[in-house]
Design goal:
The protein is mainly α. Helices cover 73% and strands 0% of the residues. It is built from seven helices and no strands.
């Protein structure tokens, strides 16, 4: 299995991800993790919109790349603890409260 994955790394990334998803689904995040990640993203996005902060301003204040902020806010990327703390701080949210709201929304 590892051999085929390593060979695929030398080819197109899209083909690599597709191979893993179809032939090795156990290596892909489970649905519960994906739903929780999206719920966290929803909490952050709703707050961002409520206070009217731009992606550029949020990225600058959180000291994270704008593209990273966008991927997190739209649920396309898992959020790391340090990023959650930074983003939540700028949005004047407690990181623990973000997680509680996400859990409640599920």
């Amino acid at each position: 299995m590892l051999c085929s994955i390593r060979i695929m790394q030398d080819t197109n990334q899209t083909e690599h991800k597709s191979l893993i998803r179809t032939e090795y689904p156990e290596l892909v995040e489970n649905d519960a993790d994906t739903r929780y990640n999206k719920a966290v993203a929803d909490v952050l996005r709703e707050r961002k919109e409520a206070i009217g902060i731009t992606f550029d301003d949020l990225a600058l204040a959180a000291e994270l790349p704008r593209a990273t902020i966008a991927r997190i806010i739209y649920g396309h990327r898992d959020i790391k603890v340090y990023a959650l703390r930074r983003i939540a701080g700028v949005l004047e949210l407690d990181p623990g409260e973000v997680l509680k709201r996400a859990e409640t929304a599920l």
